[in-house]
Amino acid sequence: MMIPSDRPLLIGVMGWPVMHSRSPLMHNYWLDQQGLAGSYVHLAIKPGGLAAALRALHPLGFAGCNLTIPHKLDAMTIVDEVDDVAQMIGAMSCVVVREDGSLFGTNNDWLGFLGNLKQQTPGWRADGGPIAVIGAGGGSRAVCYGLLREGASEIRLVNRTREKAEAIAEDLGGPIQVLPWEERHDALDGVATVVNVTSQGMVGQPPLDLRLDHLPKSALAADIIYTPLETPFLAAARARGNDTVNGLGMLIHQGPAAWKLWFDITPTVTEELRERMERSIAGD
Ligand code: ATR
């Protein structure tokens, strides 16, 4: 075994609310897969409790944790070292407890987004044509960062609140063109990829208001939402013949990057794991 015997095999996800998170299902699958006797647990941490909870990771014997809503921003000012990637994205998704108890934070969401796209659509390339990104929240930052790292030649970024899109373009640099929200339908003209990173289409939210008549049939439509597994946006794209990728894979594919940091092991993303996660989500 590659892991030193004193390396804790306790990991978890800090969030509030968090009990709905499928991360334990996924990471416990990998603990099994690797034959390791450890646990990945839900850590229900209220907003005001984050600093104390993060500092407790070391004494409690945790190797690290993932962060979800509402902690991804606040953690940046608590851990001892924030890497450049998390700085650029402006959010942290993963914390590593070092040997000396200090805390290191990074962001693996962009890797999850790219890893998923590449696995689901093997011929996909970031420089295969213009990419429309709809939305400019935290998810958008990670997606745009990943697309730029992957060599995107043109990103058309549209958001209801234009200033947030402009801030992303300024912070990340590169070939990001901000377009007005009213032009989102036309922005799909000639794109190779379109990504929804708004919250529209999530369970309890109305569908994304986006006409697909300008979207080339050859384009890939991606969503970072996974509840439901197929958003109305993806269903509409699939109905007209476009390839689609849902958001579940983004969650799954950031996992191996976290494992590499925690344990220097890269677990395998299997079809069985994806099916288990899908069944769990569909059962809600
Ligand atoms: P996340 O971190 O998951 O990206 P977020 O930061 O709350 O979540 O961002 C939500 C995104 O959905 C934003 O792009 C938001 O647009 P605004 O920046 O204008 O708020 C977008 N969004 C939310 N409700 C929307 C709506 N009714 N119509 C269009 N976009 C919406």
What does this structure look like?
The protein is an alpha/beta fold. Helices cover 35% and strands 18% of the residues. The strands form two sheets. Strands 2-1-3-5-6-4 form a six-stranded mixed sheet, sandwiched between helices. The chain has a six-stranded parallel sheet with strand order 9-8-7-10-11-12, with helices on both faces. It is globular and about 55 Å long. The model has no long low-confidence stretch (mean pLDDT 96). The structure holds 2'-monophosphoadenosine-5'-diphosphate. The site of 2'-monophosphoadenosine-5'-diphosphate has 14 residues, from helix 5.
Distance from first to last alpha carbon: 37 Å
For the CA atoms, what is the radius of gyration? 19 Å
- Percent helix range: 25-40%
Count of distinct strands: 12
Choose one word for the global shape.
globular
Strand order of the largest sheet: 2-1-3-5-6-4
Secondary structure class reads alpha/beta
Order of helices and strands: EHEHEEHEEHEHEHEEEHEHHH
Give the bound compounds. 2'-monophosphoadenosine-5'-diphosphate
Oligomer type: single chain
Count of helix runs: 10
| Main sheet attributes: strand count, strand direction, barrel closure | 6 strands, mixed
Estimate the strand proportion: 15-25%
| Average of per-residue pLDDT values | 96
